[in-house]
Amino acid sequence: MRVLLALATLAVATVAPAQDAARDFAAATDIPRAVAALGATMKPGQGFAMQTLVSGGGSVVALEYWKAEGRPAVHPDDNEYATVVAGSGTLLSGGRLVDPHVVNPGLTDGARIEGGTTRALRPGDVLLIPAGVPHGFGVGANGLVLLGTKITPRRPAAPAR
Q1: How do beta strands 48-56 and 112-114 pair?
Q2: Can you point out the beta strands (E) in the chain?
Q3: CA-CA distance, 143 to 133, in Å (whole number)?
């Protein structure tokens, strides 16, 4: 039930004009199959995989499958909402990103986070990471699978001159 509610919430958050049915809707029954399929595509030693489920209007809803801890990151312009759909782990958020490295305009990663708050994660948990906040995930023995949405906040229009 939590997954269905979270999926509905995420789908509403990314409503865009209907373009392609495969891109603007994912049924709750699609999620377990997509998780299994994504996990099956991962090669031995591969720590992370991602698959877009829904996209439109500048937002993306994707599965993030973690089998190993990755580098902590910051998304300077995107709020990140996620629901844990499988596995377990931890979220470390806040604090300061040490040795930041700009990977692309939407992603800066680093060596570690100093400070911050650690929270345990399990299926059904929902989290929000505001734009610009450092974060990283610890991964439990059976991995960690998130259904995540990145949303770029609308910026006020510049005043007319």
Answers
A1: unpaired
A2: 48-56, 59-66, 73-74, 79-93, 96-98, 101-104, 107-109, 112-114, 117-121, 126-129, 135-151
A3: 23
Given a contact cutoff of 8 angstroms between Cβ atoms, the answer to whether 126 and 13 are in contact is no
SS3 for 50?
Answer: strand
Q: What is the pLDDT of residue 49?
A: 97
The label of the residue with tokens 């991962």 reads 42
Tell me how far apart the alpha carbons of residues 20 and 88 are, in angstroms, rounded to a whole number.
33
Maximum C-alpha span of the chain: 57
Domain boundaries, the chain: 2-151
In the CATH scheme, what is the code of domain 2-151? 2.60.120.10
Task: For the chain, state the CA radius of gyration.
Answer: 16
Tokens, residue 109: 């990663």
53, 3 Cβ separation under 8 angstroms = no
Q: Tell me the C-alpha distance between 60 and 69, whole Å.
A: 22
pLDDT at 3 > cutoff 70:
no
Separation CA 98–CA 119 (nearest Å): 20
Over residues 80-93, the pLDDT tens digits come to: 999 999 999 999 99
